[in-house]
Design a protein that fits this description.
It contains 31 helices and 35 strands. With about 775 residues, the protein is of the alpha/beta class. The strands form 10 sheets. It has a 6-stranded mixed β-sheet, sandwiched between helices. The chain has a 6-stranded mixed beta barrel with strand order 25-33-30-32-31-34. Strands 12-9-8-14-15 form a 5-stranded parallel β-sheet, sandwiched between helices. Strand 26 and strand 27 form a beta hairpin.
Length: about 775
């Protein structure tokens, strides 16, 4: 099946922006929102977004804080919720008109634009089209397939971070009552390196800081992330840091507008003034050079302590709360400048300048995202950041700590609820004791191992709750072929996406409520909860009439499937859980630490923050201390004639969904199949600006992975580095190219060559036919 390749005939390039948000951000948000859902629905959704008794924005996991503005959302959050609240509908007639093979040729944007799904659909063995199916028949079909497996481990239960705490808890409960720990999730693909590194060093795999800490820090590092596009409300927090006298160091392979200057559209200075300059220092680092940077900073701190004993390192903290310092220090002293300068592409003066900022700061926070986690050496890099913070006692006290920034709105909550293929034994014991069964202890498949299992015939049922697994995973061709080998694939979704076009022998599309939809069970309106990047748990209430009367909530779908599959062997009250989500929260409170009195505490408009032992100087590691580590200096070295490619989002994109073919902040308009590279690198390669190339990845298995038809854009990227958008570039990432320890695909570190494309005969442009959407009247 060949997916559509966007033509780049409409490509227009303008100078990159030097600031983010401001009036243009508001204008773009409202234009998209009104175009998707109309004026009245736009007002209803946006004015309730991130408000008390309102809709938690599914766009990212950045926290709101206790004092919320009336318009507590960003440009991309407004676009995302309006995209979900669209009045367009996909009906059974649409599926009758479009064969699955036809849908497989469509672009991701076109599929998304068709609107909300409205009723369950099935692709039978040998069929070319989806056809309607009743809910009862769909549940019988799924339960029959699951009960017929030779082993529960032949099934996979996947979630994305859009799933609520309540649905996530029920999904992992069902999977474990069924008999498997096969619970891959989007964290496996994105954030697993953070959890692995933090568990090893601090004993808990999540961040330690709050918004107040960000506001009160003397120095905030923003490493390997682009908050202006991926979590724009972080810019407001950094603005507060700057206004309180703090400084910001940005570390990235590309200049990012949001880290240069922020024009806060809710402040007069952001509308008529110049806004706030954010980054005091912008280190344009080579892809994957962050480990070398922090190792050298750590060596320089040790040397500063040598020169002025007792003034640099926090020896009391190191002696009382850490282990492994002497071994790590001896290792760091051997870090060499030549290697560091080669790996980072920075100058000695740049690194020493950051050292001076560190020495002048008492409270330091390091924030990071997938620019660190999706490298082969992502775990050692984050461990080295922990070393950096431990040296001066910047863990566990106000204004200091680790801040891994999650992308999806409930990535953190899903993991807290037990969505992990390797949950610790204490959790499995508590779950089994609460519900009267013995939970399986054998570790399950993560996302990468799950694809291997389906490919090799060891798993034959794929059950996906939210997300777009096909387009989120690496090695697209292998992933698609693996899913097609399944006997049954199930996608629980709100809108069409590429995963619906990649079917097992039998395939189901089960339409579900979105975050913005009202959820009424047994005549009572329900709410769900989420956990943000800073461990704050709060409620979300849908406000719109559901897109169709045939939709079920995720909680209802999981509960009914569990009842059909487990039958009388299970005493878990699935039907009661479906009728009253408060009963789910009561059980969560008895299983998951920190959720005592869950229902009462979440009634607070601000929710409540989960405890983090790190902030009490308690480290649940085997030694009971925070652990200094020795990390070998690694970086990805491309051979002559090659570059290191990282995949990233465009500004008009949310995860795998492009809203438009633009990347406004980077000055790219009208095309997505572009690759950005430094002009000097292009000159060395003999590649011209705007030349058309194929991207070909280089991997040890000798398999050619090719992404055809990319337009080269000369861009101020770090030397040796290139960037292009995902999911179009996922085809280039080998399934076996993963981060050590975490098994996360190396989406930010792929060696590629830019192969000039042979000119093809002129042809007429192909225009996709536009499906006339069905609009539903009324807002409620």
């Amino acid at each position: 099946m060949t997916q559509a390749v966007d033509e780049n005939d409409e490509l227009r390039v303008t100078p990159p922006k030097t600031y983010a948000a401001g009036v243009p951000g508001v204008r773009h948000a409202l234009t998209y929102a009104i175009g998707s859902s109309g004026t009245r629905r736009t007002a209803l959704t946006l004015l309730s977004l991130n408000q008390s008794k309102g809709i938690d924005c599914p766009g990212c996991a950045w926290p709101e804080g206790p004092h919320r503005a009336r318009n507590e959302y960003c440009e991309n959050g407004a676009k995302h919720i309006s995209d979900e609240a669209t009045t367009r509908r996909v009906t059974r007639q649409f599926f009758a008109d479009h064969a699955i093979a036809d849908l497989g040729t469509r672009t991701d944007r076109w599929l998304n634009e068709q609107g909300r799904l409205t009723e369950p659909m099935v692709k039978r063995p040998g069929a070319t089209h989806y056809a309607p199916i009743g809910w009862d028949e769909a549940f019988d079909l799924m339960a029959g397939e699951l009960r017929g497996l030779g082993s529960p481990d032949e099934a996979m239960f996947y979630t994305s971070g859009r799933v609520s705490n309540e649905a996530a808890f029920l999904l992992q409960l069902f999977a474990r009552a069924f008999g498997t720990n096969n619970l891959p999730d989007c964290s496996n693909m994105c954030h697993e390196s953070s959890g692995s590194a933090l568990n090893q060093t601090l004993g808990i795999g999540k961040g330690s800081v709050s918004l107040d800490d960000i506001h009160g820090a003397d120095l905030v590092f923003v490493v390997g992330q682009n908050p202006g596009t991926n979590h724009p409300r972080m810019l407001s927090a950094l603005e507060e840091t700057k206004r309180n006298g703090g400084k910001v160091v940005a570390v990235n392979t590309l200049p990012e507008a949001g880290l240069m200057r922020f024009k806060n559209p809710q402040k007069a200075r952001g509308i008529v003034g110049k806004g706030t300059a954010l980054a005091d220092v912008f280190l344009k680092i080579r892809a994957g050079g962050d480990l070398a940077l922090f190792q050298m900073l750590n060596r320089l701190l040790l040397e500063a302590e040598d020169a002025a004993p007792g003034t640099v390192l926090d020896r009391a903290f190191i002696d009382d709360h850490t282990s492994g310092f002497e071994e790590a220090a001896a290792h760091l002293r051997r870090t060499g400048w030549d290697d560091v300068l080669t790996a980072t592409g920075l100058t000695r003066a740049e690194i020493e300048g950051v050292r001076d900022l560190v020495l002048g700061s008492d409270r330091i926070i390091v924030c990071w995202a997938m620019g660190l986690t999706q490298h082969k050496h992502g775990v050692p890099t984050i461990r080295e950041i922990v070393n950096f913070l431990l040296l001066r006692g910047n863990i566990g006290r106000p204004g200091a700590g680790v801040c891994p920034v999650r992308g999806h709105s409930n990535v953190q909550g899903d993991r807290t609820m037990g969505i992990w293929e390797r949950m610790p034994q204490w959790f499995l014991d508590a779950l089994g004791a609460e519900f009267g069964f013995t939970a399986p202890t054998r570790h399950g498949f993560d996302s990468v191992d799950g694809v291997r299992a389906m490919r090799d015939g060891h798993a034959s049922v794929f059950f996906g709750v939210a997300g777009n697994f096909v387009r989120a995973m690496s090695d697209s061709d292998v992933t698609e072929e693996a899913l097609r080998r399944c006997r049954l694939t199930v996608q629980i979704s709100t809108k069409l996406n590429r995963s619906h076009t990649v079917c097992g022998e039998t395939a189901l599309i089960l339409p579900t409520l979105g975050r913005s939809d009202r959820d009424v069970q047994a005549g009572v309106e329900q709410f769900v909860t989420v956990e943000d990047s800073m461990s704050q748990v709060h409620a979300s209430y849908g406000r719109l009439r559901p897109a169709s009367p045939d939709l079920l909530s995720e909680v209802a779908i999981i509960s009914r499937l569990a009842r059909r599959t487990l039958g009388e062997r299970s005493t878990i009250p699935w039907a009661e859980f479906e009728r009253d989500y408060g009963l789910i929260r009561d059980r969560i409170a008895r299983v998951v630490p920190g959720f005592d009195d869950f229902n009462a505490r979440v009634a607070d408009p601000a929710g409540f923050r989960l405890p983090n032992p790190v902030n009490e100087y308690r480290f649940p590691t085997p030694s009971g201390t925070a652990v200094f580590t020795r990390n070998d200096l690694e970086w990805l070295q491309a051979p002559p004639g090659h570059l290191v490619l990282q995949s990233l989002r465009s500004h008009d994109q949310w995860n795998t969904i492009p809203y438009a073919d633009n990347d406004r902040y980077r000055g790219i308009h009208g095309a997505r199949r572009i690759v950005m590279a430094n002009p000097e690198d292009l000159a060395d390669l003999g590649i011209a600006d705007r030349q058309t190339v194929d991207l070909v990845s280089v991997w040890t298995d000798g398999v050619e992975r090719r992404a055809p038809g990319f337009t080269v854009i000369a861009y101020p990227a770090a030397r040796g580095s290139a960037a292009a958008y995902y999911p179009e570039t996922n085809v280039l990432i080998p399934l076996d190219s993963v981060a050590d320890i975490s098994n996360t695909p190396t989406s930010k570190g792929i060696v590629v060559r830019l192969e000039p494309r042979v000119a093809e005969p002129a042809h007429e442009p192909v225009h996709e036919p536009v499906h006339e959407p069905v609009h539903e009247a009324g807002d409620r």
